[in-house]
Write a structure and sequence with these properties.
The complex is a heterodimer. Chain A is mostly helical. Chain A contains 12 helices and no strands. Chain A has one domain. Chain A is globular, with a radius of gyration of 19 Å. Chain B has a domain of 172 residues: P-loop containing nucleotide triphosphate hydrolases (Rossmann fold, 3-Layer(aba) Sandwich). A 6-stranded mixed β-sheet of chain B has the order 6-7-8-3-9-10, with helices on both faces. Chain B has a 4-stranded antiparallel β-sheet with strand order 2-1-4-5. In chain B, α5 runs parallel beside α6. Classes of the chains: A mainly alpha, B alpha/beta. At the A-B interface, α1, α4 and α12 of A face α1, α2 and α3 of B.
């Protein structure tokens, strides 16, 4: 197997994911509507209640809508990561995961390709959201849209790897509702998405510590800075470290000799 | 019970290395023993039927051969390459049709086949050529752009076989491939795979619980409760069990009625 084989395999997996995505228009619309609801209803309502003072990367007072936009970008990727996880559990129950895993290429590579394909889809969703938001004058400097891209790749990989890790642990499809309750909601609310960290610190130090520990906070902060052409080094490294941890554990989970896939096995047949 | 290898002596001398060699493989999930010292071989051009009731361990064996997870003891070799030690070389020579359909219903036939080709690192041109050959063989060339959802159950199965052959494997594994198909579709699939075996020299391992799928010249592996009770040519297995037909032999060996 040479580099060419690896690239062909990556292309094949991304093309399939893109085709599947195009066939599921409902999923695309849901992914677009969810953050827009937050932006137009929640944020508009809270605009007058929550004042946000000037904190980096902002140089002036910003509207609440502007403040929560990076968090909503993170939310798109969080949902997308969990959705990929759901589809991997589904694929495993339906057996089509096997088609992927019997490829002669190394399993870590196949899983990484799958991850990259999911990230590509999430990035399309994010830019679609930003275009709609721009019509309501919630926009960033033009360059920000470009500098956002590497941040999106990194945060998308991290959240996708988390989803993949969960998919290697979750036994059945039914357990997925639990993921909503115990992963998506706590990660989203205990983060800097809706309120800046210093504000959380004022009300509860414990909650502040939880938020500061939450990798999603750092994904959001990385995106927030990137959207204004700046780099938040600490958050970027924190996301990178989380990615390495989650991906490592996910690959372990799918290892034919060690992970849960080996211990749990298949129903008798 | 002793580890069974009763037919070893009557095995025909085949040229070269076995397409599939399973040697002393045991496997358990927790306390449940799924396979116990399983051993048999399949050579190029042989159609071997892995015969066993539901729960005999057929799917577990398939999972080990395709390296979904590792065998803990014994060895599995594909044309001499150990599945655990040289997974890439071993897997490149296997085509698999799993028990559950694993085909994307919303994608077209050719998109499904191209995806599989890409997983094996094939170029687009090579994939297009193989696609033509494999679909042509099935008389399905004109359905290439149809969504799989629009095909009948038997056609979907045949597409899965075509997919398994896209990368030109020399060993084809099929796990209960005729489940849920009517008699005619079943026969068509069986004929198709037998022809491949005869004409292309493909080695085939066909797992089933349907005894009537065993043909007169096949090799048979009788798997029961994780153990190989008999292995060899159909005639040898029947004679070894002191029976007149394969159904009788199966019943005698397993102590259960075959269905």
């Amino acid at each position: 197997m040479t580099a060419v084989h690896y690239l062909r395999c990556l292309r094949g997996i991304v093309v399939r994911e893109a085709l599947r995505f195009l066939h599921q228009r409902g999923r695309f619309i849901a992914a677009l509507v969810r953050p827009l609801v937050w932006l137009f209803i929640f944020a508009a309502g809270f605009r007058s209640v929550l004042g946000v003072s000037i904190i980096p990367p902002y140089e002036t007072y910003v509207l609440y809508e502007v403040y929560i936009t990076p968090g909503l970008i993170g939310m798109i990727q969080l949902f997308n990561g969990m959705q990929s996880s759901l589809s991997m559990v589904y694929d495993r129950e339906m057996g089509s995961m096997k088609t992927l895993l019997v490829s002669p290429l190394p399993r870590w590579y196949l899983l990484t390709c799958k991850l990259l394909a999911g990230v590509a889809v999430s990035i399309l969703q994010v830019y679609a959201f930003l275009i709609v938001a721009a019509f309501w004058e919630i926009d960033a400097p033009v360059w920000g849209y470009v500098s956002l891209l590497p941040a999106l790749v990194l945060s998308g990989l991290m959240l996708g790897a988390l989803g993949m890790l969960l998919s290697s642990v979750i036994k059945q499809l039914e357990n997925f509702a639990g993921v909503m309750n115990f992963v998506i909601f706590p990660m989203f609310f205990a983060s800097s998405t809706l309120y800046p960290l210093w504000k959380i610190k004022e009300s509860s130090l414990l909650l502040y510590n939880i938020c500061a520990f939450n990798p999603f906070t750092h994904a959001v902060e990385m995106i927030r800075f990137a959207l204004y052409g700046q780099v938040n080094t600490f958050s970027s490294l924190y996301v990178l470290a989380s990615l390495a941890l989650f991906l490592g554990l996910a690959i372990y989970g799918y290892d034919p000799g060690r992970g849960l896939i080996a211990r749990r096995g298949e129903p008798a047949g | 019970m002793t580890p069974a290898a009763p037919a070893q002596a009557t095995e025909p001398v085949a040229d070269g290395v076995a397409a599939l060699a399973v040697e002393g493989v045991s496997h358990s999930f927790g306390a449940r023993r799924a396979l116990e010292n399983v051993a048999f071989t399949v050579h190029p051009g042989e159609f071997a039927v892995l015969l066993g009731l539901n729960g005999a361990g057929k799917t577990t064996l398939f999972s080990l051969v395709t390296r979904l997870y590792h065998n803990r003891s014994g060895a599995i070799r594909i044309f001499g390459s150990d599945v655990r030690k040289k997974p890439s070389r071993a897997l490149a020579q296997i085509g698999v049709v799993f028990q559950q359909p694993t085909i994307d219903l919303d994608l077209s036939v050719s998109q499904n086949l191209r995806y599989h080709a890409a997983l094996h690192g094939m170029s687009r041109r090579a994939a297009a050529e193989r696609l033509e050959v494999e679909l042509g063989r099935l008389d399905m060339a004109e359905r290439a752009d149809d969504k799989v959802r629009r095909l009948s159950g038997g056609q979907r199965r045949r597409v899965e076989i075509a997919r398994a052959l896209m990368h030109g494997p020399r060993l084809l594994l099929l796990d209960e491939p005729t489940v849920g198909l009517d008699i005619r579709a079943r026969q068509a699939i069986l004929d198709h795979v037998r022809r491949l075996c005869r004409e292309e020299g493909l080695a085939v391992l066909w797992a089933t619980h349907l005894i009537d799928e065993v043909g007169g010249h096949d090799r048979v592996v009788v798997l029961h409760e994780g153990r190989v009770l008999a292995f060899g040519g159909v005639a040898d297995v029947i004679r070894g069990a002191g029976a007149a037909t394969i159904i009788e032999a199966f019943t005698t060996l397993t102590g259960k009625d075959g269905t």
